[in-house]
Amino acid sequence: MQAIVQCKNLTHYYGKRCIYENLNFEIPKGRILGLLGKNGTGKTTTINILNGYLKPRSGECLMFGENSAKLSPETKQKVGLLIEGHVQYPFMNIAEIEKYYSAFYPKWKKEAYWDLMKLLKVDPKQKLSQMSCGQKSQVALGLILAQDAELLILDDFSMGLDPGYRVLFVDFLSEYARAEEKTVFVTSHIIQDMERLIDDCMIMDYGRIILQMPVKDLLENFRRYRFKSKGISAFDHLKDLYHPVSIKGQTEVYSMLSKSEVAKLLSQSGINDIEIKEEKLTLEEAFIGLTGKY
Amino acid sequence: MEKALLYKEWKKTRIFSISIALVAIVLSAYIMLKAGRSFRIAGMEHLWDVIVNRKQFIFKELKYFPIAAGLCIGFAQYFPEIVQKRIKLSLHLPLNENKVVMLMHTYGMGVLLCVFFIQMLAFTIFSSIYFPFEFMLNSLQTIAPWYLAGFVTYMFVAMICLEPVWNRRGINSLLAIGTIYLFLLSGTPAAYEHTMCLFLIVSLWIFPFGLLSIKRFKEGKQG
């Protein structure tokens, strides 16, 4: 599949603190890719590098084949950007801001914007400064939909939104992106929203990408296994078993392996004759399984 | 696209732009009425003595207005851009980034230029009615550095606001205070007559400083 964004050997430090070294990933065309990671793992850093607002210490990001630090105006026209906090101009009203942005994008589809505004039931002359965070998020979303960009980058879109607006945002974006075959790169703290929206997930831990794969494949293959054992020292070192935790003899591990493969692995570690309970996971649980609770 | 960007700047700063224009009108009217009152009460002879022999300048109330106007329009324009890093929205527009910043500068400088030009024209007409050509020229040479200081203030405010690192903002502020102080060193009429060219060069040299701040912002400098 053709990649719209390619990040090659990205290395970045804040002072002496390493965010990541030699990070490589691609955003395939026509997919909705979610970047998941705990606070401080470098999600916003990655978005900033992608948009040319941060120069990595080494490596490069190519967007539509151009270095993201020096995007041409033609390429910028193809990229819709939602900044963390749904930042827009508070001194404009919703009609003025639509008119303002329409001057920059030749493929501007004002219906996409106004359809969303109708749902808000707000006056076209209402200023953004007098709108709630949820309403502002819809304005910001409407603007990038009207831009008809090929690639949409959304940084923490669920920030500050109540459940109703989060659902509205996800449904509208998901329907639009799939109908128009847009490529979307999105981050959010709320993984439940991501599960409903994204095709592929990329899970970051401190300094590295743990995995990038379709959500469907992850949820089909990644499992939690519970069994009784005296501690975790016998299998703590096994790389196929993620984040084993034992509380009062009740042990849980996460793995991509099947139940029989896990049983075999545990048996090789000297843990025999145990009853293993296999559990399917939500994306949020899979995320915790891969990154750990702590 | 350029028109849209200028429209955005107008929407953002219109209250401040109109206020600066109104203050300019009120201040100009006050200075001219005060001078007219002096003509009537003290008489022209006394006024001439004050101006020629005691080197007093009758438009001295104007001195800090251009700097205040530059500060005001600069903050009105660039402070909202740094709140929530809103400048990212402008830099993401499908325009060359330097062009975006230059257009923003052009708007602010344009507002100042309009206000200063109208004010200068009013003083020139007023001077030409009551005073000989030499006095009028002398007045213009006296107030020109003050107006230049207004433009320089504006450019420094842009540079300081757009700068992403606080320490650097502090250094830039000190540089700004030092540079602007140069323009106000002497209150003697036409004191800068022979150094105006140098002052013009300094002003032009400062013009692209905002681009340096944007370059540093784009590199992700923090602090």
Characterization of this structure:
The complex is a heterodimer of chains A (294) and B (223). Chain A has 294 residues and is α/β, with parallel strands linked by helices. Chain A folds into two domains: 212 residues, P-loop containing nucleotide triphosphate hydrolases (Rossmann fold); 70 residues, Alpha-Beta Plaits, CATH 3.30.70. In chain A, the strands form three sheets. Chain A has a six-stranded mixed β-sheet with strand order 6-7-8-3-9-10, sandwiched between helices. In chain A, strands 2-1-4-5 form a four-stranded antiparallel β-sheet, with helices on one face. A four-stranded antiparallel β-sheet of chain A has the order 12-13-11-14. The longest helix of chain A is centred in the middle third of the chain and has 18 residues. Chain A is elongated, with a radius of gyration of 22 Å. The two termini of chain A are 36 Å apart. In chain B, α1 runs parallel beside α5, α3 runs antiparallel to α5 and α6 packs parallel to α8. Chain B is an all-alpha fold and 223 residues long. Chain B has one domain. The radius of gyration of chain B is 20 Å and the shape is elongated. At the A-B interface, α2 and α3 of A face α1 and α4 of B.
